[in-house]
Structure prediction request, 468 residues.
Amino acid sequence: EEAPSNPTLGFLASSPLLLLLITLRNGRAGLFIKSLLIDLQGPMAPLTTPVKICIITEVELSKVLKITWIISNKWDSTLFGSSPIPENYLEDYHGYGALDWYNVNPRFGGADDLKSLINAMHERDMWMMLDVVANHVAYIDMDFEKVTPFNKEEYYHAKCQINNWNDPNEVEYCRLSNLPDLDQDHPFVRKTLIDWVKWVIKEFDIDGLRIDTVPEVKREFWKEYTDAAGCYAVGEIFNSDTHYLASYQGPVPAVLNYHSFFFTRNLFQDAGESMYQVRDIVNTDNEVFPDPTILGTFADNHDNARYLSFHDDLKNYQNVLVFNFFLQGIPMVYYGTEQAFKGGDDPANREPLWGHMDTNSEMYKFVTNMVKARKDFNVWEHPHVERYVNHDIYAFSRGEVLVAVTNTHNPFGVDVAYLPDSYKEGDILCNILNSENDCTTVSNGSVNIHFDDGEAKVYVPQARLIKE
Prediction:
């Protein structure tokens, strides 16, 4: 599929910067774009040419939707997100450079354009998730009069820089990358930010929030902010400490599960690491998080080098993906995963998708089948139940779906006797990731799971596959 040539579709068609598949608790899969990159002069070119959000016609909207591998009948996606508001400073387009809270970034179009897009999405059972920042404003240093409505010095914390990320006071009161830090304890700032999030959700019919720079603002503020929003919100806390992450769930409805992210990245690239550690991940999350079932789970994102950039092993990567996709929570798949992108640290991990999107690629089909299993078997309705573990394998179920992952390429097999109650003697289970060549039968109350070369397993009843 060629990128649409209509320049009014440029912000979507040229180079989607951050695309994340989100499979929501009710089974809907969706797309989240943290920010947008216009690829007019190269993969990381600045936005120098104004482009509108879209011209909503049936033909052109269909082109917009085709920018992603997610928005296809197979992937059944229903959520889309971005940072088109507030208006950003100069050439900024990513939401970090907030200049006017109540204006849509004119380089993407106007308020009516955004509303038309969201209305058209809702008509197609798609949802809009907005990326928001309440911590700071644009790179204006001390020129506060440039910012609307925060145009006075008294609305900001005193100028200082975050140097010690282990000092909560410094993190909450000082500047991130010299971005002027809003004082949420100031009555005007607090009220305006809370009124704004209520306004933007109602004005544009927003369905959810992704909240940036959460630790840089006090927890008490986030509680008021998300209560005012009245919708699902997931917060970014770039930290692997489970207790630290969990301390923000409550002030924010959900957080990104960086604990699992960092842990599994290490575990699944070293066959010497024991798979018993997966049990520790799951048990710790269950013990510490108020509600681990709505955490955001992921294997790659825009802030970290892609897994394949430092460990070029597709089988290992597939195991990381499967575990995080079926782990309790709301899975998010970073764009390019379905094409096995290998970009390193930012900005190399934000490579353009156009010219590389292949719906027949191995990884496209792999992710499609993961989505199918999760959706067809309503895994979000079922708890995570450990079924078997040893040094080389961790197996668990979500209802009728039996998942087995490994970090070794050595061939081996195990008999799993602790099975879901729905499995009956003689039932044939097939790995939906390789259903033609990887099936096993329930015999004497157990199934044999055999690994040939470190392949991930997502077993489902063959009868259900045939029926569908």
About this structure: The two ends are 28 Å apart (CA to CA). The chain has 13 helices and 19 strands.
